[in-house]
Design goal:
73% of the residues lie in helices and 5% in strands. It has 88 residues and is mainly α. A two-stranded antiparallel ribbon has the order 1-2. Strand 1 (9-10) and strand 2 (16-17) form a beta hairpin.
Amino acid sequence: MAFPLGWGFTGEGGETYRMADSDRHGAAVDAELSSLASQLEALIRRIEDLATGAVVIGRDEAADRSGLNEVERHLRSALRELNRARRA
């Protein structure tokens, strides 16, 4: 559907964006994705520390470590997908 000049598009909240607004919106989305990536990286480090700590304190529950390793793998996968989305 073609829009006459001067029309924008409607965002998720119902607000209308014009071209300059969409540039700002794009920058806001990029910033949000970057923030999420940083948070995922921090969370991955925390999970790694927990998994390492479980080994250091001598916990013999392999299920705990394997569960943490599984969480770490999923978070790393999510981070890769997020980085792909940022490049797109």
